[in-house]
Design a protein that fits this description.
It comes from Pseudomonas abyssi. This protein is of the alpha/beta class. The protein has a single domain, classed as NAD(P)-binding Rossmann-like Domain (Rossmann fold, 3-Layer(aba) Sandwich), CATH 3.40.50. The chain is 48% helix and 15% strand. The protein has a 7-stranded parallel sheet, with helices on both faces. The mean pLDDT is 95. Bound molecules: nicotinamide-adenine-dinucleotide (NAD). The site of nicotinamide-adenine-dinucleotide has 28 residues, from helix 1, helix 5 and strand 5. Nicotinamide-adenine-dinucleotide binds next to helix 1, helix 5 and strand 5.
Length: 276
């Protein structure tokens, strides 16, 4: 599938060494963009770039710690040196490894180092990449900056306090990009992502948990990385040229319904059976 809607464009995807970032990079490349695969995991980033090149695309990998300003500046210079322009920045990187998830808990049990990591990578990292890429876009008179946010940044949950606060703050970034650089041709938008695990992650989740989650989605199935990547490609392209300063929710309706909906459905189906 190549639409050519991103032909001649250069896109940076952070955290593209795996998961949703890698899928976004593949889809942007399939639409014609040249890709900078940015990740702290050098080997993973190189694998994704090689895969894109092998399928006829154009890609480079840049080992980068997005939480370090020095590292981000070096990454932007490397991308400019290779491709000479930057049209799309997808701020996708987040710290989500097992240790981080275990330590970024409810407020009273929060390991404050995990809080600091979540804020440093998810929030500060996105701010740093935006800070160093937007001047390039302003010079070009055009650009699209995208932020990966999460339902956990909009609704309270039992754990992941630092992650949730970092994602809540990120919802402000598209509005700031739009207000500050919109007249110079730079758009900013966020995607509030619902559960869209990589295919192999489904098998590691207990069936009961998947059923609870599926029941709370207003789509037949849970999300896939490809469905998120398609939204990112829309925001990256001119198809969304009149969309800026907003957060697009891509979560299968998970956050669209009343909290009691699933319990009510169960209640009414039981009432029907009892002839109530
Ligand atoms: N997968 C989902 O269901 C889901 C749901 C809601 C939101 N999201 C958001 O989507 C994005 C991708 O999620 P994912 O599930 O693919 O995560 P993932 O853990 O699979 O990928 C994150 C990537 O970021 C990289 N990374 C971590 N720290 C970094 C740093 N300091 N510098 C550069 N790269 C770094 C990792 O190496 C990894 O490749 C995240 O922003 C996440 O919050 C995902």
């Amino acid at each position: 599938m190549t639409t050519g809607k991103l032909d001649g464009r250069v896109a940076i995807v952070t955290g593209a060494g795996g998961g949703l970032g890698a899928e976004c990079a593949r889809v942007l490349a399939a639409h014609g963009a040249s890709l900078a695969i940015v990740d702290i995991n050098e080997a993973a980033a190189a694998r994704v770039a090689t895969e894109i090149e092998a399928s006829g695309g154009s890609a480079m990998s840049v080992a980068t710690d997005v939480s370090s300003e020095e590292s981000v500046e070096a990454m932007v210079s490397a991308v400019m040196e290779r491709f000479g322009r930057i049209d799309v920045l997808h701020n996708n990187a987040a710290v989500l490894d097992v240790a981080q998830r275990q330590n970024d808990r409810d407020i009273c049990n929060l390991d404050i180092a995990a809080w600091d990591r979540a804020i440093a990578v998810n929030l500060r990292g996105s701010v740093l990449c935006t800070k160093h890429v937007v001047p390039v876009m302003v010079k070009q008179g055009k650009g699209s900056v995208i932020f990966a946010t999460s339902g956990l940044g909009a609704q309270g949950d039992l754990s992941l306090t630092g992650y949730a606060c970092s994602k809540a703050a990120l919802n402000m970034m598209p509005k700031l990009v739009a207000a500050q650089y919109g007249k110079q041709g730079v758009r900013g938008n966020a995607v509030q992502i619902g559960l869209a695990p990589a295919e192999n992650a489904h098998s590691s989740m207990p069936k009961e948990l998947l059923d609870i989650l599926r029941d709370n989605h207003m789509t037949p199935e849970l999300g896939t990385p490809r469905q998120i990547a398609d939204v990112v490609a829309f925001l990256a392209s001119d198809e969304s040229s009149f969309v800026t300063g907003t957060t697009l929710v891509a979560d299968g309706g998970f956050s669209s319904h009343t909290p009691s909906l699933v319990a009510m459905q169960a209640f009414f189906s039981q009432s029907d059976r009892k002839g109530m």
